[in-house]
């Protein structure tokens, strides 16, 4: 029996590729010579779209596929999917929450330790033979005993908070609502939190509401000794102001896994020494990417069988 057609929006790992091919016929959208023609060809038969968190799915694709039932996204953040268009078309949307919490939290910690202890700079120092020529590196700060504010104390934010407590840091948080059962102090205002902490870690989703939430004022409140860590979305941060403040020393440092216009990272940011940069690797371990792929497939299979979806967004 022929397998149902699935539109794949962007490249995926071998594990997910193999698992998908067991249950659907995969059509690679990014390889289409004529995207419109591929959509027209698949219009009568495509029942699923599989996509990545960065690629998402625009309204044009949803509207071009009248038999579409589900968009299964490989990632927890679904800001790049036109969720309103999906809802209007009666199309379900799923994501991959929870299975990536530990990996993203580890990456947040790696970024913080890297920035604080000058790990990338130290690595370069040794490789360039400067230790032998120039002697020891300058002394560094420590995370121990410092205050950290988490903007977005959700699944990932909580996994980060647990690890930062183990680093003997004092954890506080900002979100839209206070979480009475959490042991951390709550700030209703991100700027007030920034004023009171040494580190600010972003773990909230990219939405209209969070766009630019880390404004120039918030970063100025964080101050010359303060450090910003972003493992959520580049859209949360006023990136031009971030670069200016880092250049002027009005913000102490930044450790960033995500950027406003990925994979493009501003030259001026790349030239700074008080930053640690990663290419959106938060969930990029073998174990986590495999678990994310399995959850994508489990959601597709549930939809195909008429079972309840495992992790629905819409
Ligand atoms: P989650 O469980 O939904 O947590 C999000 C948190 O953000 C919630 O605590 C929420 O609290 C807060 N929040 C939402 N809107 C807010 C607003 N307007 N202002 C302030 N706080 C707000 O999500 P998650 O699973 O932890 O994932 C968080 C995000 O991490 C994802 O959406 C994705 O963008 C990003 N991510 C990045 C990577 C990476 O590779 N770097 C990997 C995975 C995920 P309230 O509802 O109380 O406001
Ligand atoms: C992925 C992410 O790198 O889950 C998310 O929201 O940003 C990351 O896990 C991305 O979705 C890859 O498709």
Describe what this molecule looks like in 3D.
The strands form two sheets. The chain has a seven-stranded parallel sheet with strand order 8-7-6-9-10-11-12. Strands 2-1-3-4-5 form a five-stranded parallel sheet. It is elongated, with a radius of gyration of 22 Å. The protein has helices at 14-23, 35-42, 59-64, 83-88, 101-116, 119-127, 130-134, 155-166, 190-196, 216-222, 239-248, 267-270, 286-305, and strands at residues 5-8, 25-28, 46-52, 70-74, 92-94, 147-151, 170-174, 185-187, 199-202, 227-230, 253-256, 275-277. The chain is α/β, with parallel strands linked by helices. The chain starts with a strand and ends in a 9-residue tail after the last helix. Helix 5 packs across helix 8 (155-166) and helix 9 packs parallel to helix 10. Strand 9 (199-202), helix 10 and strand 10 form a beta-alpha-beta unit. It has 13 helices and twelve strands. 2-keto-D-gluconic acid binds at residues 52-54, 74-77, 100, 280, 282-283.
Share in β-strands: 15-25%
Roughly how much helix do the residues carry, as a percent range? 25-40%
* Unreliably modeled segments: none
What distance separates the N and C termini?
Answer: 30 Å
Number of strands: 12
Number of helices: 13
Output the strand order for the largest sheet.
8-7-6-9-10-11-12
Average pLDDT: 98
Q: Pairing-aware structural class of the strands and helices?
A: alpha/beta
Q: N-to-C SSE series?
A: EHEHEHEHEHHHEHEEHEHEHEHEH
Q: What's the overall geometry?
A: elongated
Cα radius of gyration in angstroms: 22 Å
């Amino acid at each position: 029996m022929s397998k149902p057609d699935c539109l794949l929006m962007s490249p995926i790992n071998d594990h997910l590729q193999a698992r998908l091919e067991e249950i659907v016929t995969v059509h690679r959208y990014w390889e289409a010579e004529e995207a419109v023609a591929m959509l027209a060809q698949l219009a009568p038969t495509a029942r699923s779209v599989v996509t990545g968190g960065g690629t998402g799915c625009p309204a044009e694709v949803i509207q071009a596929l009248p038999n579409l039932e589900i968009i299964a996204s490989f990632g927890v953040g679904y800001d790049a999917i036109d969720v309103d268009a999906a809802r209007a078309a009666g199309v379900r949307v799923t994501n991959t929450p929870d299975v990536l919490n530990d990996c993203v939290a580890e990456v947040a910690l790696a970024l913080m330790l890297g920035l604080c202890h000058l790990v990338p700079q130290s690595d370069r120092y040794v490789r360039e033979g400067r230790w032998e020529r120039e002697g020891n590196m300058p002394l560094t700060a420590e995370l121990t005993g410092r205050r950290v504010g988490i903007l977005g104390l959700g699944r990932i934010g909580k996994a980060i908070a647990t690890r930062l407590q183990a680093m003997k840091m004092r954890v506080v948080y900002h979100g839209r609502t206070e979480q009475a059962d959490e042991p951390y102090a709550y700030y209703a205002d991100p700027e007030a939190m920034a004023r009171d902490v040494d580190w600010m870690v972003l773990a909230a989703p990219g939405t209209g509401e969070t766009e630019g939430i880390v404004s120039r004022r918030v970063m100025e409140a964080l101050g010359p000794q303060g450090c910003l860590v972003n493992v959520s979305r580049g859209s949360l941060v006023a990136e031009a102001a971030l670069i200016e403040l880092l250049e002027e020393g009005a913000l102490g440092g930044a450790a960033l896994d995500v950027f406003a216009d990925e994979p493009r990272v501003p030259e001026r940011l790349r030239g700074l020494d008080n930053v640690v940069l990663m290419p959106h690797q938060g969930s990029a371990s073998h174990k986590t990417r495999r678990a994310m792929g399995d959850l994508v497939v489990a959601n597709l299979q549930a939809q195909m069988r008429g079972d309840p979806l495992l992790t629905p967004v819409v």
